[in-house]
Predict the structure.
Amino acid sequence: MARVSELESALQMAPAAFQALYSAEKPKLEDEHLVFFCQMGKRGLQAMQLARSLGYTGARNYAGAYREWLEKEG
């Protein structure tokens, strides 16, 4: 997926351009489960806030970050 630094432009792309660049379907504004995460939690939070500011109301941050996921699921 996109880095935080390119997230704003990525979420404003046309769906076809997003698909071509990221090999994934562009999230829809109404998607309920758009989850962001990072290694420690700060960039995930920034990404979630940015997505919400662009209208992605279902954007969430996995607050435990990658480290917690790895401990529980990895």
